[in-house]
Amino acid sequence: MFLLAWRQVLLDPLRTVLTAVALGSVIAVILILVGFEQGQYYQLKQIVLNRKADLIVTQAGVSNFIAVRSSIPQLARAEVEAVKGVINAHPVTAIPVIYNRNNVRTPVYVLVYDTWGGPSSIIQGREITSGKEIVIDASLAKKYGINPGDSFYVTDFEFKVVGITQEAAFMMPFAFINYDGMLDLFIESEIAPDLSTFPLLSYMLVELDPAADRQSVARQIELHVPSVDVITPGQLAQNDVNMGKVFFKPIMGLLVSIGYIIGMLVVGLIMYADIRARIKSFAVLKALGFSFGRLFLVVLIQSSLLLVITIPIGTLLALGVSVFIETMSPAYFIRLFDPVIFLQTLMTFFVFAVIGALIPVRTIQRTDPMLAFQDI
Amino acid sequence: MPEPVIKARNLTKSFGSGHTVVVAVDNVTLDIQPGEIILVMGPSGSGKTTLLSMLGGLLKPTQGTIEIDNADITTLKESALPEIRALKIGFIFQAFNLLDALTVQENILFPAQLHAGGINEARDRADVLINQLGLHKRRNALPQTLSGGEKQRVAIARALINEPKVILADEPTGNLDSQTGQEVMMILHDIAHEQGYSVVLVSHDPRVEDIADRILWLEDGKLDDRQQERHKWSRDPVCGMRVDERTTTIKTEYHNKQYFFCSDKCLQRFNADPGQYTK
Amino acid sequence: MFKWTWKSLSSQRGTLAGSALGIAFTFILVIFFDAVWRGESVQIVSYPDHVKPDVWVMQSGVGNMHMAMSFVWDWKADQIAKMPGVKRVTPILYMTSVVSAGKHRMFAFIVGLLPDAKRAGPWKLTAGRHIGNPQEAVIPDVFSKITGIGIGDQLRIVDKSFTVVGLSSGTYSSANSVLFVPFADLEEILSSSGTYSYLLVDAKEGTDPNDLAKRIRDQVEKVNALTQKEFVSNDLSMAKQMGVGIIVIMTAICSALAALIVGFTSYSLVIRRRREIAIIKALGIGNDKILISVIVQSGILTFIGFIMAMLFALFVMPAVPLLLPQLTLAVSTPALFQIGLIALVVAVLGALIPAWFVSRLDPATAFHI
After folding, report:
1. Among the residues of chain B, which ranges form H helices?
2. Is residue C260, in this structure, part of any structural domain at all?
3. Crossing angle of helices A233-277/A292-328, nearest 10°?
4. pLDDT tops 80 at residue C115
5. N or C, which end of chain A has less CB nearby within 10 Å?
6. Is position B151 within any domain?
7. Is residue C233 part of a domain?
8. DSSP assignment, residue C312?
9. Which of B225, B245, B260 delimits the end of a domain?
10. Is residue B241 domain-resident?
């Protein structure tokens, strides 16, 4: 049965190639949609984890990093650093700004850092050394054609781009400046009417003594500094991922479901066309004594073989397209190869595809073996 | 007298119901002995293929019984019939019906997976058949590269691979030229008379009569044993073609003499001017 | 030839239905992707679109609302209120944050309203009432539907608790739901005082909003003033262009997929009828006529798929938000026209392989079995 199924797959190479590319494209569409969703979660996670803190201090009641306002009193830093086990509490401030050039606007998340928490994956240029410098995300650089050495205006304040990093989350590019830059921006530009209205300290990245116990230090900080909450980077990242899921899950879930339906229909169509084309062979096999169960097995094996051939094609296609997407629009990160999600997606596709393959099997069931005597 | 391989009793098959009912096979009783070649002839639509299909367990009779190897297949469930077909019957079709994707050897071995011994045990049998039928040079060829005669030899080998009790062949020479048809007939003759397989043939080819032990005539669903009186040939007075007086329905009488025709066209020409053709 | 093409196609109803459905679903995926993005984009401007002042005033350098921060001194509101042509100035405080209610989280635009500022508040309440007391909130009715959080329930914004007193319609989206809370409470959360985020300026009858916006920009220090149209368009275009790249790429992939399905089906039909095509060739019918029939075949298939997708877009898609209220779908006419154009290209591309096969088919095949 396996031999027949395998040979059937190879019988018409052009048709098999067409089939493989069609099925591969369906797999690619699904993988890209899933990868797009996973990429969003991955970016949301990494943007927190790449700050490399042992613990993260937020404003009391704030449990997210992205797209929220956290404001910690300046004095809290000394109080946190006074807790036993804390080596340093590195300040970080998050300022959402709208970058506007030639009326093309992009929301940018500017992270202000001092000693920790700066850009983690610079691909061009260097880190910041002075207050007038900025490192921006590659997607922003590509969108506006910005290179290291170019000016970058936030409201009316001019920064000089010294580096390009790859850090974006929630489809928002990130930019990095230091505290000198932030104060200059606040004072010289019109970004805020006075400094009191702006959060000067959003988060603290806590560096712990290696011997210190994370949980107990976190409890101690919360006990001694009531205006803050302490969260592990993993938890903070997970909170952002969960928030991202509220946004992406229903949309992407529906789109991926449509993808699976297309997969089911395409496999069903391919197998139906194949069964119709070989209807007489099935009639002959029935006449020769092959039961419906065995013929069903042929279709099952054949569709499985097709899928086994097309999954690598689909994966390669998805890889090619995702590289293209990331090159064209670096703000989108397509995470194809999360092992669990990847396997889960392929398994789900496989199940849908096999269901699709079984839809036309009724045609075989209804095939009269007497057809073997006819000249069709 | 050995026990018949197939015992068919009062077989009737009708299609449709009420005033549209068509009786394709009407109360046919038939025994097929081991090693016997039976040729079923008859005009188109006479029920030959229906009879063959019932004998092969492809079609349930409306009435009557069929015993193959002492098992009544008419009482068996639909799901039990494939096994009977796989092990007791070998089919040969006019259009060969080989599986295009498989080679000669794979086609022959394909039904062996339904045999208790499976494909591995059937390999020796397949080798014997391949050699016997002169297919050893074409063992790995695909059906599309074979000639008609070769295809039919592969089909015969496939029908024999599970060593069935009876071979049912539907117009086995229908798609073959005369020489190749002759070869195939001789193969069928040999497998029946030398190897003891029973063979039931449905054919229009009068040459097949030469190898048949019994010729049955099926017309309007009724069977008639015509072993003793096969044909009575006469000439169509218009075109000169040979016509079997016993089978043709196109005939007329002129001056107290019967004339037989190959077609209505010749009959019309004759009727227009009989004198021209009876000089 | 056309009759033969149509009969060949319609005799294979299963293949026709399967492939037309496959094509339809790939088109639906494109329409859906676009509608989701467009829907979210439209929802991003839902608040400014509904409160509709004539002029928006914000901090200089700011030109929109989505993900923006703006601070305007309170005395500037008074200054603008006294300007000629100004009927009313309604200040709001605004921030983006994550709202938590039990185990549920929602990313939201939070609008802080002064006690008498109903004008900037929810435009349609489906249950409950407007906020009137401290620490009260009006939340989107869809959020209430999804989570079960209703009137009388508690929610938290940063470290402050609020009681839900009203449910508003048209304020939910996955990307930015709009919540209304008292001004003073939001001021506390923001640790700000004496500042507003945006000023909603209504002009007196007969006053040109463009002129008023210009006068405000010229006469009030360090503020930006935009007409309603400009303000909404800035947000809308920003939201849309954020998704342009991925929409274009997904459209391209799905179109290629649709072309492959058409190609596969057309090729399968041609293969199945190769003997007939050979006979037609042997009868002396030219390649050109047969090629046209192959293109017509692809065209019919694509057209049926296209019609199915259109029917889905027009009749089924509007019902999707009833099942999944968190989705906002905006099916646009240009997007449907675009699918029509794509369908044309798909039909031609899908005909290429079968056409190549047909042009190479030997008429002698007619004599083979």
Report:
1. 48-55, 81-88, 104-109, 118-132, 148-160, 178-193, 264-272, 274-277
2. yes
3. 130
4. yes
5. C
6. yes
7. no
8. I
9. B225
10. yes
Using pLDDT thresholds of 50, 70 and 90, give the confidence band for residue B228.
very low
B263 is in which domain, residue-wise?
A: 233-277
Contacts of A10 in chain B (CB under 8 A): 101
Quick one: C213 and C73 in the same domain? yes
A205: CB partners within 8 A, 6+ apart: A51, A52, A53, A56, A89, A90, A91, A92, A116, A117
Of B60, B69, B100, nearest in space to B87 by CA: B69
The CATH code of the domain that includes B174 is 3.40.50.300
Domain span at residue C342 reads 2-42+242-367
Helix or strand (DSSP H, E) at C146 = helix C141-147
Tell me the chain B residues in contact with residue A289 when contact means C-beta distances shorter than 8 Å.
82-87, 89, 111, 114
* Residue A218: partners with Cβ closer than 8 Å, 6 or more residues away: A55, A230, A231, A232
**pTM (2 decimals)?**
0.76
Tell which of C221, C254, C278 closes a domain: C221
User: Which residue matches tokens 């789109």?
Assistant: A255
Same domain, C193 and C81: yes
For chain B, say whether A4 makes contact (Cβ under 8 Å). Answer: yes
Same domain, C184 and C305: no
In this structure, are C34 and C79 located in the same domain? no
Tell if the CB–CB gap between C272 and A276 is shorter than 8 Å: yes
Query: Domain for residue B1, yes or no?
Result: no
List of residues 6+ apart from B166 with CB closer than 8 A: B5, B6, B32, B55, B68, B88, B89, B90, B197, B198, B199, B200
In terms of domains, do C69 and C176 share one?
A: yes
- Residue C369: what pLDDT? 44
Beta carbons within 10 angstroms of residue C131's beta carbon = 27
Contact A370 B58 (CB under 8 A): yes
More confident residue, C36 or A189: C36
- Asked if C353's CB is within 8 angstroms of A269's CB, the reply is no
Q: How confident is the model at residue C261 (pLDDT cuts 50, 70, 90)?
A: confident
Q: Which residues contact A102 (CB under 8 A, 6 or more apart)?
A: none
Structural domain tally of chain B? Answer: 2
The CB density around residue A339, as the number of other CB atoms within 10 Å, is 7
List residues in chain B touching A: CB distance below 8 A.
Answer: 49, 52-53, 56, 58-59, 79, 82-87, 89, 91, 93-95, 97, 99-102, 106, 110-111, 113-114, 158, 170
ipTM of the complex: 0.76
